[in-house]
Amino acid sequence: MARTPPAQRNAEETRSQLLKAATASFAYDGFHATSLKQIARAAGVNPALIAYYFGNKEGLYMAVFEAIVGQIQAKAGPRVEVLQTVLDAGEAADPGALRQALYAIVDAMLELLSGEESREWALLITREQASPTDAFEIVYNGFMGKVLGLASRVIRELKPGLSDEQARLFAFTVMGQVLVFRVSRTAALRHMGWKVFGEAELEAAKEQVHDNITAWLAV
Fold first, then answer.
1. What is the DSSP string of 16-27?
2. What is the tens place of the pLDDT at every residue in 16-61?
3. Residue pair 213/102 in contact by the 8 Å Cβ criterion
4. Would you list the domain boundaries of the chain?
């Protein structure tokens, strides 16, 4: 088996360290309040390496979002592909298969957002929602828009009487039910009387969102 040369491995590790440090700094302090020296210090590397790997602060910020999208795609991408395949079947698409594929996407997002590693992603994406930059385009075009588009198509297939606008709104409310467990995590734990958002809590959330979707589709 081929091994990664030490120099290449060290370069990859350095880049990864910088992205990890930058993700945390940008998430908690914001783009403008974060300095490159702060990021380099947190990563334990020479500040000059930021320019070498990313060009400038803006380049590093964009790279952080590209890394986030890459991790989301690694987790949820296979289930998105299943949903795409089911939809591509056209008239042969089975309603039950469509529902299950939609539930699988919901489950993947809930699993992803329930982990502590998604805390910083959520903060960054929330900042971009409030004051969008080019980084929002990376998130939307890289994953969010595709998932919303596919979910809208599924809903149109399952409820053909809906208009395109109604299906899109339906899809967005489904996404909102998933996101609330990350962006309003503290309130959810307090309201539910949960101490943590563990496996049992995750399964309860999945079941409830599935039930909500099923009920809406039945109306």
1. HHHHHHHHHHHH
2. 999 999 999 999 999 999 999 999 999 999 999 999 999 999 999 9
3. yes
4. 1-55, 62-218
**18, exposed or middle or buried, with CB in 10 Å at 0-12, 13-18, 19+?**
buried
Q: Are 103 and 65 in contact (CB under 8 A)?
A: no
Annotation: CATH topology of 62-218: Tetracycline Repressor; domain 2 (1.10.357)
CA–CA dist 96, 119 (Å, integer): 33
How far lies 61's CA from each of 29, 37, 131, 135, 219, in Å? 13, 14, 14, 8, 44
As assigned by CATH, the class of the 1-55 domain is mainly alpha
What are residue 55's phi and psi, to 5 degrees?
A: 90, -60
201 CB-side CA count, 13 A:
17
Number of neighbouring beta carbons within 10 Å of residue 88:
9
* Distance in angstroms (rounded) separating the CA atoms of residues 74 and 206: 20
Confidence of residue 2 (pLDDT cuts 50, 70, 90): very low
Q: What predicted TM-score, i.e. pTM, was given to this entire model?
A: 0.87
pLDDT band at 11 (very low <50, low <70, confident <90, very high): confident
